[in-house]
């Protein structure tokens, strides 16, 4: 175990690719824990005309996964000591369980990805296969966070409505009688559920943002950034200086007119101290001119 830790490349956590995975791991925990561990309650009061038949502290408890149609409570009928059993309305377990499931799988995948980054980063980057798989999975999770967060936001709104004491009072038959008095005593606290929705959309932002950092590891960026050069415009690179280099003939040499110096001329100083050139022409003497 110590050897494995010693071989780890934990500096990747300081880089955006690894650091954002740590954030995804943390916020995934916050998202599914705030929703999956919720338990709430509210209280009602039914005061009958005959005080002995009243119940001033009806307590209703509900929790995750919010199958409210299975939650019941007993309320007085204000007709003797008889009570009626009433059930809440709605089943919102599908959206809540879907949200928690995405949170749990995001937590597991983030932890697995961090392990790969820290211990087998070379294999992850080998042939870009690991990065490409990571990109696809990240895109899937980003989409799932969008769907699950929106679904749970709608489900939470319905849960708030179904557990509103004023709405639940309408289910009690005794409250329809004007001589009886029904009122709410304690509202449910749903701040934790509101936080879970916020964490869901924070996870959505994190996973969408992570797409860019994983995309840079895939090698696809070079393909998008490159420019296409038509084949007829491509010129082969010279193999040596002899091709298209110093070995080319002077285009001005040959049959073209103009001055063509002879690099083979000979010149030097003679015995008399004068400079002689190797021209074949004989200089005209001054004596003949005179």
UniProtKB/TrEMBL annotation:
Annotated Gene Ontology cellular component terms: presynaptic active zone; synaptic vesicle membrane
Membrane topology of the entry: Multi-pass membrane protein
Ranges of biased composition (kind: Polar residues): 278-290
Keywords, comma-separated and alphabetical: Glycoprotein, Membrane, Transmembrane, Transmembrane helix
The UniProt record lists the keyword Zinc-finger: no
Transmembrane stretches, start-end: 22-41, 98-121, 133-154, 197-215
Domain of life of the organism encoding this protein: Eukaryota
Region (Disordered): 235-290
Keyword set includes Membrane: yes
MARVEL domain ranges (all copies): 12-219
Annotated Pfam families: MARVEL
Compartment(s) of residence: Membrane
Identification of the protein by name: Synaptophysin b
Gene: sypb
């Amino acid at each position: 175990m110590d050897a494995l830790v010693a071989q780890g490349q934990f500096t990747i956590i300081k880089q955006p690719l690894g650091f954002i995975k740590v954030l995804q791991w943390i916020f995934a925990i916050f998202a599914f824990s705030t929703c999956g561990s919720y338990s709430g309650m509210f209280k009602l009061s039914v005061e009958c005309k005959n005080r002995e038949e009243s119940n001033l502290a009806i307590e209703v408890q509900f929790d995750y996964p919010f199958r409210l149609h299975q939650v019941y409570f007993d309320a007085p009928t204000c007709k003797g000591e008889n009570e009626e059993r009433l059930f809440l309305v709605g089943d919102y377990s599908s959206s809540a369980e879907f949200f928690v499931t995405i949170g749990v799988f995001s937590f597991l995948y983030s932890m697995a990805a961090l392990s790969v980054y820290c211990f087998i980063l070379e294999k992850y980057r080998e042939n870009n296969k690991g990065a490409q798989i990571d990109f696809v999975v990240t895109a899937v999770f980003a989409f799932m966070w969008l769907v699950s967060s929106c679904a749970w936001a709608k489900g939470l709104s319905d849960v708030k409505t179904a557990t509103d004491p004023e709405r639940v009072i309408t289910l009690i038959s005794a409250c329809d009688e004007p001589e009886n008095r029904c009122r709410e005593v304690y509202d449910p606290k749903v701040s934790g559920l509101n936080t879970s929705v916020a964490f869901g959309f924070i996870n959505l932002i994190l996973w969408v943002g992570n797409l860019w950092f994983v995309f840079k590891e895939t090698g696809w960026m070079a393909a998008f950034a490159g420019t296409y050069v038509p084949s007829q415009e491509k010129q082969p690179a010279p193999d040596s200086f002899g091709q298209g280099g110093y070995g080319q003939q002077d285009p001005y040499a040959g049959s073209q007119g103009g001055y063509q110096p002879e690099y083979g001329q000979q010149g030097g100083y003679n015995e008399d101290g004068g400079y002689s050139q190797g021209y074949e022409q004989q200089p005209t003497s001054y004596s003949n001119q005179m």
